[in-house]
Automatic annotation (TrEMBL):
This is UDP-N-acetylglucosamine 1-carboxyvinyltransferase. Keywords: Cell cycle, Cell division, Cell shape, Cell wall biogenesis/degradation, Cytoplasm, Peptidoglycan synthesis, Pyruvate, Transferase. Residues 441-474 are annotated as: Disordered. The gene is murA. Its EC number is 2.5.1.7. It is found in: Cytoplasm. UDP-N-acetyl-alpha-D-glucosamine binds at residues 109, 138-142, 326, 348. It is an enzyme of class 2 (transferase). The active site is at residue 133. SUPFAM superfamilies: EPT/RTPC-like. It comes from Myxacorys almedinensis A. The modification 2-(S-cysteinyl)pyruvic acid O-phosphothioketal is found at residue 133. One of its GO terms (molecular function) is UDP-N-acetylglucosamine 1-carboxyvinyltransferase activity. It catalyses: phosphoenolpyruvate + UDP-N-acetyl-alpha-D-glucosamine = UDP-N-acetyl-3-O-(1-carboxyvinyl)-alpha-D-glucosamine + phosphate.
Length: 474
């Protein structure tokens, strides 16, 4: 196995000569799109690989900036990481550090998921408070309370979470933990820590998200004893060690949902696979309520059927199986051009409606009152220069751009690159007209006429395609 010593990630940061994404809207889409492995599963599974005393192989890992960053954190902790096609091989047999580097952890929320596994494996974890999308306050108190209940002493000083097992014990101790809120990350962190604890842990009011179930499946593949995942009551019987495993990451339900919206908003029939339709129940139900059909021709496939017009609907984001907050922004784009009004309540994050101003710039009619957006459907959107403010906001602007008249230019692509694998190639494969160019060379006027649409040659230009963030993992 080759150790990945240098994992430079070549994503676009805001400081560089920022690339922008130009989209020429109103082009119908058609065909099939392959859905990648789930970002939010892959990230926590990669953190979970720290629990293994040997080496694990994770397949269907998306090539994303966030994945690259978490791999860099693992390498800093002593994990040997090697890439084999869409798989990553992770050898955590000899961990050399319990301290995660600030400059990496500060870039993504999922980095904090190494805390539980590190504590369980080494008896100590030193992890800075995490970064991630700026969509709210995002404290880690529930993670901390859970780890404390398992027998950890946790101090937060100078932005660093220092945790070690109390009383010089070698293992954490199983406990009964009630979560004030079914936090995805806290459930995952506590569940991972508990796999190696002595005795039984019960997590009550646990998150039920598919990514939690995927993590439980991966841990079970390594020999963990977990039951109840997918319900709000998870029971973990600790074992002394976890062993090697080969595991495949579940398909990305948020990417799949985003493509359903792309089909619906462009009035196009597109097919998606692989998907787990049950992971998209709330999104499909809301599409149907709006008058858009989604059918499943095969167990792992979905097809969105275009409707010439569709109506508004109300949405409230909730923990799974409720409507996912990660789909709120793209769904809002769809509702901007629905007939009638819609009300969208964002209940999970207090600052996750920043895309409203950008959609209004494109001609939408959305009014904000606290965490509620009232959308009045308009006949059309028009292309405009817009700024992506977070990951799902950027996806919302992409789907809006696909439907808008003229050209939309999206800035802030470093958000998009965190979470959508090969998005531009996938959209181009469906017939969309878009290209990534450097801001300095971008055509500035919005709503440009036909001659500005890229030629087939320009669309294929490799300089317009973001390079593979995992390319250094060889
Ligand atoms: C990497 C990853 O998997 N990210 C996902 C994960 O984020 P993340 O795990 O951060 O989301 P949580 O479920 O923990 O957060 C939900 C709510 O709980 C609050 N909270 C959370 C933890 C805590 O200790 N204290 C606390 O108050 C948060 O501020 C938020 O208001 O689930 C979110 C909710 O589905 C998704 O939007 C994110 O895409
Ligand atoms: C909010 C997200 O990611 P993160 O939790 O890593 O910020 C997301 O995936 O939509």
């Amino acid at each position: 196995m080759t150790s990945a010593l240098s994992l430079s990630h070549s994503h676009s940061s805001p400081e560089e000569d920022s690339p922008v994404l130009q989209i020429w809207g109103k082009t119908p889409l058609k065909g099939h799109v392959t859905i990648s492995g789930a970002k939010n599963s892959a990230l926590v599974l990669l953190a979970g690989s720290l629990l293994c005393s040997g080496s694990c192989r994770l397949r269907n890992v998306p090539s994303l900036v966030d994945v690259s960053l978490i791999c860099e954190i693992l390498v800093a902790l002593g994990v040997k990481v090697a890439r084999q096609g869409d798989a990553l091989v992770l050898d955590a047999s000899d961990l050399t550090s319990s301290k995660a580097p600030y400059e990496l952890v500060s870039q993504l929320r999922a980095s904090f998921f190494v805390t539980g596994p590190l504590l369980a494996r080494l008896g100590v974890a030193r992890v800075p408070l995490p970064g991630g999308c700026s969509i709210g306050d995002r404290p880690v108190d529930l993670h901390v309370k859970g780890l404390q209940a398992l027998g950890a002493d946790v101090q937060i000083e100078h932005g660093m979470v220092n945790a070690y097992i109390r009383g010089g014990r070698k293992r954490l101790t199983g406990a009964r933990i009630y979560l004030d809120f079914p936090s995805v990350g806290a459930t995952e962190n506590i569940m991972m820590a508990a796999t190696l604890a002595e005795g039984e842990t019960l997590i009550e009011n646990a998150a039920q998200e598919p990514e939690v179930v995927d993590l439980a499946n991966f841990c079970r593949a390594m020999g963990a004893r977990i039951r109840g995942d997918g319900t709000n009551r998870i029971v973990i019987d600790g074992v002394p060690a976890l062993h090697e495993a080969d595991y495949m990451v579940v398909p990305d339900r948020i990417e799949a949902g985003t493509f359903l919206i792309a089909g619906a908003i462009t009035r196009s029939e597109i097919m998606l696979s692989p998907v787990v339709p049950d992971h998209l129940t709330a999104v499909i139900a809301k599409l149907k309520e709006s008058g858009i059909s989604v059918v499943s021709d095969a167990p792992n496939q979905l097809r969105v059927i275009p409707a010439s017009s569709y109506r508004g609907t109300d949405i409230e984001t909730l923990p799974f199986p409720g409507f996912p907050t990660d789909m709120q922004a793209p769904f809002m784009s769809l509702l901007t051009v629905a007939e009638g009004n819609s009300m969208i309540s964002e209940t999970l994050f207090e600052n996750r409606l920043q895309h409203v101003a950008e959609l209004n710039r494109m001609g939408a009619d959305i009014k904000l009152k606290g965490n509620i957006a009232v959308v009045r459907g308009v006949p059309k959107l028009s292309g405009a220069p817009v700024l992506a403010t977070d990951l799902r906001a950027s996806a919302a602007l992409v789907v809006a751009g696909l439907a808008a008249e003229g050209m939309t230019t999206i800035q802030g692509l470093h958000h998009l690159d965190r979470g959508y694998e090969h998005l531009e190639d996938k959209l181009r494969g469906l017939g969309a007209k878009l290209q990534r160019v450097h801001e300095s060379t971008a055509l500035s006027a919005p709503g440009n006429s036909e001659e500005t649409v890229p030629s087939p040659l320009a669309e294929c230009a490799s300089e317009n395609t973001p390079s593979d963030p995992l390319s250094a993992l060889i």
